[in-house]
Design a protein that fits this description.
380 residues, globular, 5-stranded parallel sheet, alpha/beta
Length: 380
Amino acid sequence: MNTLYTVDDLHQQATERTGLTDFGADDYLEGLDILLDSYRREAGLTPLGVAATREILIGALIARAKSEAALESFPAHRDIPIERPIFVTGLPRTGTTALHRLLSVDPAAQGLEMWLAERPQPRPADRESWPSNPDFQEINAMYAAQHIENPDMMGMHYMDAYTVEECWRVLQQSMRSIAHECLAYIPTYSEWLSKQDWTIPYLRHRQNLQLIGSNDIEKRWVLKNPSHMFALDEIMQVYPDALIIATHRDPQTVIASMSSVNQQATIGWSDTFTAEKVGATQLELWARGLEKFTSARGSYNPDQFLDVDYRELVADPLAVVANVYAHFGIPLEDEARAVMAAEIADSRSGDRKPVHSYNLAEIGLTDQQVTERFAGIGVG
């Protein structure tokens, strides 16, 4: 591990790139320390892996510093209500992204765009002005480069600065993110994270939503993150009127697909995070997440939850959306139906058309192993 890859180095780099020195309360430092230690001792990072993970963490600190500065500049954010936000969660690769992006195009809704998740600030009301924003330009250029450097990854999960994305990028400001476990073998950090209370990260999550949506107060938030499964109690504490959509697909496909995505995202990063290691860690991680979610769910009003089957979503996405709106008592306007139909057509063509192949054997697992691990947990 590069000797400059230290807590001080990461903060210094974030400050040099932004001119900001205020990272807020120090509640994130324990997680950062443990994560760095786990990277050093366990991850087997190559020089490329060191550079990649270093950039991820600098990016999280930049987001935290930008968030602190913007929250200070816009104190009125504290009074902005967030009512009945929709959280799309479930095992990865179960249609969470497709459903999230579909719900988010409703003119009455708002999602968390990639560039604002990475560089929190009030969402400029004029979308046409975004390309002139330096933060937008930085994030857009970063993902444009990734399209060239790792086109296969974009076929699995298309991303650019405009797209609505997972809000683990906001939770990452608190150095609590399941995403780290998906990109490296870091068992010490994983064990530590499994025992953490997520209330403070979700309070910060809420502050960031209040900030980012301050020009769209009337719009309903639609959020998405498979790792929300690990923190349902904290979500319901911070967002007591949250509406939770849980997507489902057979676990064999989920684990094979998710492991393939993680392998593709981390090509050349590690000598330790082999295909077999990816498969084993992802199987345990997501089975544990579904266990925790299923156990916690029984404590809350069932009317705040809705289950969606992946096969039904693929077969007739608009019918699934109509059911979501009906279940939660949300009006589905004709304009929303029209833009959703256009979104479906767009998502199945061009650069956004999904292209992905995978199987369990490639990651050293069998159907039986996955079936046994998920047995008794509930629907996958």
